[in-house]
Amino acid sequence: MLHAENLFSYYGKSPILQDVSFSLKAGEFLSVLGRNGVGKTTLLKTIMGLTDRCEGRLEFDGADISGRSTPERARLGIGYIPQGREIIPRFTVEENIIMGCYARTDGKREIPDYLFEMFPILREFLTRRGGDLSGGQQQQLAIARALAMDPKILILDEPTEGIQPNIVRQIEDAIVHLNRERGLAVILVEQNIPFARKASDRFVVLDKGAVAMAGHKDELTDAVVEKHMTF
Ligand SMILES: Nc1ncnc2c1ncn2[C@@H]1O[C@H](COP(=O)(O)OP(=O)(O)OP(=O)(O)O)[C@@H](O)[C@H]1O
């Protein structure tokens, strides 16, 4: 479904990602791990076409998307939830979600009901301004907005960072549900190793912009964590 080969990605003249390759099949869950500043966010931005320049091959559903704009990649079915969530604070919860519906290619504009089953608080706060929600609720809203596009793959950047524990659980459960019950492929940047072990099929560890290790979740041993993720 998503295939990256020998990716080099740049901010200005600095190559941040260096020769990164990985593949993701339909319905698979991949965690992207590594210490701070190793290029995890940059990898997600590269998939969305949000870095200054990228070399290498990037295919989605068999088509080369490296020349496509970010909105085109979204319309093809790549749902991206960035680290800062980027909901529109002055828009209501409903308006924020409807913005996602407008990226749909099948013309449907109504909000899918399962979003509210997953995150009931969004139905309750439908007319509240997005900016007035708590951080965790905003994260739920950002996920709902991305899902309203009806994506085939969901890309999430540390979705539970800085969020109160009771909402962390809801968000983690929702991500697992979307993958296992609704068949969405997931790429997740995560610092929480127990959750990465529980939720993912495979993982990649980045170090200094390159893939230091990749494997099945069973290979994500304490020794690997110690070597690549402790400070
Ligand atoms: N817009 C930018 N312009 C120039 N350099 C950048 C930009 N964004 C990130 N970088 C640099 O790219 C490198 C990788 O950053 P990135 O945010 O991808 O790391 P990360 O692994 O996601 O880190 P964290 O876990 O702290 O979020 C860092 O050295 C960072 O300073």
Structural key phrases:
single chain; 231 residues; alpha/beta; Rossmann fold; six-stranded mixed β-sheet; four-stranded antiparallel β-sheet; 9 helices; 27% strand; binds adenosine-5'-triphosphate
| Beta-strand residue percentage | 25-35%
The whole-number mean of residue pLDDT values reads 93
Shape: globular
Percent range for helical residues?
A: 25-40%
Q: How much is the radius of gyration in Å?
A: 17 Å
Oligomer: single chain
Bound molecules: adenosine-5'-triphosphate
Question: Describe the biggest sheet?
Answer: 6 strands, mixed
Query: How does CATH name the architecture?
Result: 3-Layer(aba) Sandwich
Number of distinct beta strands:
10
Which H/E pattern describes the elements?
Answer: EEEHEEHEHHHHEHEHEEH
Please write the CATH class name: Alpha Beta
Question: How many individual domains?
Answer: 1
- Give the distance, in angstroms, between the N- and C-terminal Cα atoms: 34 Å
In terms of per-residue confidence, which ranges show pLDDT below 50 for 5 or more consecutive residues?
none
* CATH fold naming: Rossmann fold
- Give the spatial strand order of the biggest sheet: 6-7-8-3-9-10
Question: CATH H-level name... which superfamily?
Answer: P-loop containing nucleotide triphosphate hydrolases
**Helix count?**
9
Descriptive report:
This protein has a 6-stranded mixed β-sheet with strand order 6-7-8-3-9-10, sandwiched between helices. It has a 4-stranded antiparallel β-sheet with strand order 2-1-4-5, with helices on one face. The mean pLDDT is 93. It is an alpha/beta fold. α3 (93-101) packs parallel to α6. It is built from 9 helices and 10 strands. β1 (2-11) and β2 form a beta hairpin. It has a single domain, classed as P-loop containing nucleotide triphosphate hydrolases (Rossmann fold), CATH 3.40.50. Adenosine-5'-triphosphate binds at residues 11, 16, 34, 36-42.
